[in-house]
Structures are given as C-alpha cells and as structure tokens.
Amino acid sequence: MAESESGAEKSEEPTEKRLRESREKGQIARSKELNTLAVMLAGAGGLLASGGGLASALLEIMRGNFSLPREVLFDERNMVIWLLASGEMAIEALLPLFLALLIASIVGPIALGGWLFSAQAMAPKLSRMNPLAGLKRMFSTKALVELLKALAKFLVILLVALAVLSADRDDLLAMAHEPLEAAILHAAQVVGWSALWMACGIILIAAVDVPFQLWDNKQKLMMTKQEVRDEYKDSEGKPEVKSRIRQLQREMAERRMMQAVPQADVVITNPTHFAVALKYDPAKGSAPVLLAKGGDFTALKIREIAQEHRVMLLESPALARAVFYSTELDQEIPAGLYLAVAQVLAYVYQLRQYQAGKGKRPGPLPDLPIPPDLRRDE
C-alpha cells in the first residue's frame, strides 16, 4: 500500500472529487510507449502505402535537377524556380505520410486517459526548479522504471533490427545489381516493412507500460481515511455548521408560519398539545390549506397570535391531531378530512353571524367524522 507524506496508509479508493481535480491538474495516466507505438505504426503504414509515390517523386526530382540546361544553371531566378518546384513535389509526396503521423500523434495520447487540456499543467512550477526535488525524482522508483523501459526498448529494437536485417540481407544485396529506378522502389518497400516490424516490437513494451501507468496513477490518487473524512467535511459541511444552518432554516420557516396565522379562518387545538391553522379561499374553489401547525410551545404561540388577531379558536383534539400528522405546510388537507373541516368552517361561519347580530347562537361543535386511517391517538 502507498503512504502519504504524513506516513498514513493510503487504503481508500479516490473519490469523484479527487478524480475530477486530478484531471483539472492534468494528472492522468499517460504512456509514452503507447504514443511511440502509434506514431511508429502510422509511419510504417504510411511508408508502405505511399512508398511507391515517394520513390516516384524522388526519381522525378532527381531527373529534373540532374538534367538542368546550361542556361538555367547560370540564372539565379530560374534556380529559385526549380528549387520551389522541387520542394512542392516533395511536400505533395510527403503530405500523406505527414497526415498519418499527425493523426497518430493525436490519437496516441487520447487512447489512454482521453482528451484533456489543462492550463494548470502548462503553468510553470517553481518546485520543479528545486535541485533536491530533481535529485529525488532522478533516484525514484519511477525513474528506475523509466530506465528499465529504455533499456528494454533498446534491446527489443536492436533484436528486431538485427532480425530484419538478417531477413532482408538478400534484398539489400540484390539492390546493388538493380537499375536505379527499381532499386529506389525496392528500397522504399524494404524500409517500410522494416519500420513496421520494428514498430511491432514496441507492442511488447507498450503492453507492459500501459497497465503500469494505470496502476501508478491510481496509486498516486489513493487517499487515506483522514483525507476522505476531510473531503466529506469540506463538501458536505462540518456537522456543527450543518446543524446551525438547519436551526436557522427552522427558525425562518417558523417566522414565516407565524406571519401566516392572522390570515387563517380558524385555529383548531388539542387543546394544549397541538394547534393547526386552516384557510379556505372560496374563489379558488380548492380544499382548505394548512397555514401553520405546531406542538407544545409552538402550539401555544399559534394560539396567542390567533387571539391577538381575533382568529377563531376551536377545540377538536381528534381533528387537530389528524391534520397535524397528515398535512404539510401550505398543502391542502387530505380528502378524508373534507367533511370534518367543512363542518368546522360552517360552525365558524355561524358563530361569526351570531357575533355580528345576524343569527342565533349555534350549539356546541358536533362530533366530527375522522376516517380511521387518519385518526391519531394521544
């Protein structure tokens, strides 16, 4: 297991935040060997595909430049024209190969780690100029691995090159007896196949390097238990801060709730343990809405505000408990309580008519129908 600078064991998988931050810093798995393999394969393939065209272009350039008229040789302007024409022919012949190399140089890095542009990775770091840090990197495990890879690459390329030269020995000797044009075409073919076989030799090194780079990058991103806890605190907030925020949110919600009590049509009480404030708007044609609810001290506060603003107070323990447990603030009461609340509102209307001297005093509030599934006992 890897260890942090503090000596703690890095035993935890990297979090999403750690992975995201590492990408922003440009710290992702990259394999130089995979990039080299892609470029070499593209170059070898390009030589095989366009080798004949390259050889023909080379022959054409040689014919043109080795057979210049005498008057052209002594005319500087004509020499410039011939030079530009030769350069244009060379560029046209090499363009397919250059495009293949360009694509390979882009696809190679993207194949491992994906596309990434990081301004932080490009920014200069003074820590890299520290001689002690440089010595530490030179004698680190990664430096040893890079040295072993370089030696392995050299040996593999050397063995493949010797094998290719041995296999192509007859072809190389035969070129000396071939006409110039045929020898150039033959040489282009031999060079293309030789480059392809040497590129295939890099496959062995890349097959080892890619898993190592993935493993090494993961080890660098591993976290200690303390780092995971600290990150959780930073992202989710410290418990005491979260508790304080929830307390402030409750206080704000309670203040808004108390401000809505004077708008209620009736406050139904338990009479002391619960209090709920209901509002019915006939213009909307919907069910009554719960404006405020609370128990114990909050219930007492709701009753006090209701008395101050002359909101009707009615005692109905069963209905108060049912509304309290079944309805959230600013929500309509459930359908099962429609009839009970309608009777309460009708009773409140009759009391108001009596208080205004327009009717008889109503009797006591009748027993209200509370469905069994909404009934709550003390």
Automatic annotation (TrEMBL):
The keyword Transmembrane applies. Keywords: Bacterial flagellum biogenesis, Bacterial flagellum protein export, Cell membrane, Cell projection, Cilium, Flagellum, Membrane, Protein transport, Transmembrane, Transmembrane helix, Transport. It comes from the Bacteria. Residues 7-27 have a biased composition (Basic and acidic residues). Belongs to the type III secretion exporter family. Required for formation of the rod structure in the basal body of the flagellar apparatus. Together with FliI and FliH, may constitute the export apparatus of flagellin. This is Flagellar biosynthetic protein FlhB. The lineage of its organism: Bacteria, Pseudomonadati, Pseudomonadota, Gammaproteobacteria, Pseudomonadales.
